[in-house]
Amino acid sequence: MRKGKDAILRLLGKGEPVPYRQMLKALNVSRHERGRLDDLLDYLVETGEIAKLPGRIYTVAGAGDTVRGKLSTHRDGYGFVMPEDGGEDLFVPARYLAEYMNGDIVEAQVVSTRRDGKREGRVTALVQRGVTEIVGRFEAVGKGGRVIPDDPKLGRDLFVTPGAAGGASKAKTGQIVLAAITSYPSGARPLEGRIVEVLGEADDPEVEALTVIKKYELPNVFDAKVMAEAEQQPQEVTDEARQGRVDLRERLTVTIDGETARDFDDAVSVAREGDKIRLWVSIADVSHYVVEGSRLDTEAYLRGTSVYFPDRCIPMLPEQLSNGICSLNPQVERLTMTAEMLFDAAGARVEQKFYTSVIKSAARLTYTTVKKILVDQDAEAIEANRHLVADLKVMEDLSLRLNAVRKGRGSIDFDLPEPQIVLDLQGETTAIVRAERNLAHRIIEEFMLAANEAVAHFLETTPVPSLYRIHENPDPVKLQDLSEFVFGFGYILKVMDEKVSPVALQKLLAEVAGKPEERLINEVLLRCMKQARYSAENLGHFGLAASSYTHFTSPIRRYPDLVVHRILKRVLSGKMKGVDKDRLEARLPETALHTSKRERVAMEAEREMVDLKKMQFMRDKIGEEYDGYITGVAPFGLFVELIDLFVEGMVPVATLPQDYYVHLEKSHALVGERSRAMYRIADKIRVKVAAVSEPRKQVEFALVGTLEKRPIEPIADVRNAYQRIPIKGKRPKPRRR
Question: Domain S1 motif: where (predicted)?
Answer without folding.
Answer: 623-704
